[in-house]
C-alpha cells in the first residue's frame, strides 16, 4: 500500500498497519493477506508494508501513524531458515520475494521490524504474529548462534 492508494480510498490514516517480510500476495496461503482481509471485513482501515527497508525507520513511517497498532511478522517462514541453509550458509534465493531475490529481509526479522516500528512511532503498540514469533516466544536454543536466547517478547518489547 502507498499514500496514493490511501488517498484514493479517502483515508487520512490507517487503523492498523501490518508489516511482513514477504512480498505481498493477496492469496490465502499468505497469512498477512488473510489477516488484512479479515480486519478490513470488520471495518478497519488496514495498511500493509511488505519487505520494508529495515536499515531506517522511513519505510515504517510511509503510511503514517496507525490509530491502533502495528502487526508484525517475519513472513511465511522463520527469517533465519529463509536466509540460511542448515550449514549456516546464506541462501541465494527467497521463494517469498518477487524474482526469488535473496536478502530482502533481515536476520531475526520479527525483532528488527518491531524495533523499527518503535523507532518510528514510540507510543504505538506492536502485536507480533507468525511462525517466527510463535517459535521464539519462550527462552530457546538458537542453532544459528549456538546459545540460549531470551524470548522474542523480552527482546522486542512489542506492547507499550
From TrEMBL:
Presence of the UniProt keyword S-adenosyl-L-methionine in the record: yes
GO molecular function: 4 iron, 4 sulfur cluster binding; metal ion binding
InterPro entries reported for this sequence: UPF0313, UPF0313_N
Domain UPF0313: 1-157
UniProt keyword 4Fe-4S, yes or no: yes
UniProt keywords, alphabetically: 4Fe-4S, Iron, Iron-sulfur, Metal-binding, S-adenosyl-L-methionine
One Pfam family it belongs to: Radical_SAM_N
UniProt-recorded name of the protein: UPF0313 domain-containing protein
Species whose genome carries this gene: Klebsiella pneumoniae
Amino acid at each position: 500500500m502507498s499514500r496514493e492508494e490511501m488517498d484514493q480510498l479517502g483515508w487520512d490514516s490507517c487503523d492498523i498497519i501490518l508489516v511482513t517480510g514477504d512480498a505481498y500476495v493477496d492469496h490465502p496461503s499468505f497469512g498477512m493477506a488473510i489477516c488484512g482481509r479479515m480486519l478490513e471485513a470488520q471495518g478497519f482501515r488496514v495498511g500493509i508494508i511488505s519487505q520494508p527497508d529495515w536499515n531506517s525507520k522511513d519505510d515504517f513511517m510511509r503510511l503514517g501513524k496507525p490509530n491502533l497498532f502495528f502487526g508484525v511478522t517475519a513472513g511465511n517462514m522463520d527469517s533465519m531458515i529463509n536466509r540460511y541453509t542448515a550449514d549456516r550458509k546464506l541462501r541465494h534465493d527467497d521463494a517469498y520475494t518477487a524474482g526469488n531475490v535473496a536478502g530482502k529481509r533481515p536476520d531475526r526479522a520479527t525483532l528488527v521490524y518491531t524495533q523499527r516500528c518503535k523507532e518510528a512511532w514510540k507510543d504505538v503498540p506492536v502485536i507480533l504474529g507468525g511462525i517466527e514469533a510463535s517459535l521464539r516466544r519462550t527462552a530457546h536454543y538458537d542453532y544459528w548462534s549456538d546459545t540460549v536466547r531470551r524470548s522474542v517478547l523480552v527482546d522486542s518489547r512489542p506492547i507499550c
